[in-house]
Amino acid sequence: MRWMKSFNKKDLLSLSLSAVALVVSMVTMYFTFFRHVDDIQVRVAEFDIENTSNPAKDRIVTTLAFINRGNQPALITGTQSIVGSDREELIRGSFEWGGPTWSPQGTFPFVLDKGQMKLIVVYDSRRVLEANTPEGEHRGFYGLEIASIDSQSQERGSRIVFGQVDVKDKRITSFKGDHVATSVFDTVKIEFRVPEP
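^ thats the sequence. predicted structure below, dont judge the formating
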């Protein structure tokens, strides 16, 4: 304890500040180099159903914004559409109809690096959706399943339900979409890895 007496107040203050700086450096190093955060969000930017003079070519068009809010890259491998008459059941995975979506060639798969944001457009067939609805008037909900692989090489899946579609006599009469968001890294079991060509 004799050595403690040889320190004056300035020395103790300097030693304390050095210790605090060392702790801050170690915490910063942990968050920068050692802490792995897988956090990818997908948000519906736009939902539209084309209405042209050729119904056979009309498409359901969904623009998705993928945002990497974590510090690890991720691989987004594809999407698939889901349709059901009960929104909550559809979110839980009980859908009446689902099918492949398509995008411009080379869209999927893609890597989303940390801090990166990417807009993706996926298409679905209006005619197929109409053909798979019951006769008469029907309100359905539309969504997508998203397949991905996280930084630990684990396959992940998520569902996002964002559209409401009213159909009468197998023709879409009205629709609306919400700008909802969800994590890409839910634990949803999905049956596809990449979109069909």
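DSSP finds four helices and ten strands in the chain.
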